[in-house]
Amino acid sequence: MSEIVVTIADVRACNLCVRGARQWFSLNKLDFQHFLVHGYPVETIEATNDALGKQVANHARQRAAGEEE
């Protein structure tokens, strides 16, 4: 099974704004520019133990499984 990578498309699919995402990454000590270019493994986003992170990570998992709405 390949690694699931959370991307900015997952953030947008959850109806979250990019400006807010930038702040969220800063608060969680994650590099937003790295995220825009490469994404982050879903486990990294889940490890923040934050509700918004979990929502986006869940969407990425559903997308990877072909279950997104």
Record the SSE blueprint.
Blueprint: E1 5-6, H1 8-13, H2 18-27, H3 32-38, E2 40-41, H4 42-46, H5 51-64
Antiparallel strand pairs: 1-2
What does this 3D model show about the protein?
The protein is mostly helical and 69 residues long. It has one domain (5-64). It is 61% helix and 6% strand. The protein contains five helices and two strands. It has helices spanning 8-13, 18-27, 32-38, 42-46, 51-64; strands spanning 5-6, 40-41. Strands 1-2 form a two-stranded antiparallel sheet. The two termini are 22 Å apart. 20% of the residues are buried.
List keywords for this structure.
globular; two-stranded antiparallel sheet; mainly alpha; 61% helix; single chain; 69 residues; 5 helices
- List the quaternary state of the chains: single chain
Across the major sheet, the strand order is 1-2
Largest sheet: 2 strands, antiparallel
Total helical segments: 5
Question: What's this model, at a glance?
Answer:
The chain is 61% helix and 6% strand. It has helices at 8-13, 18-27, 32-38, 42-46, 51-64; strands spanning 5-6, 40-41.
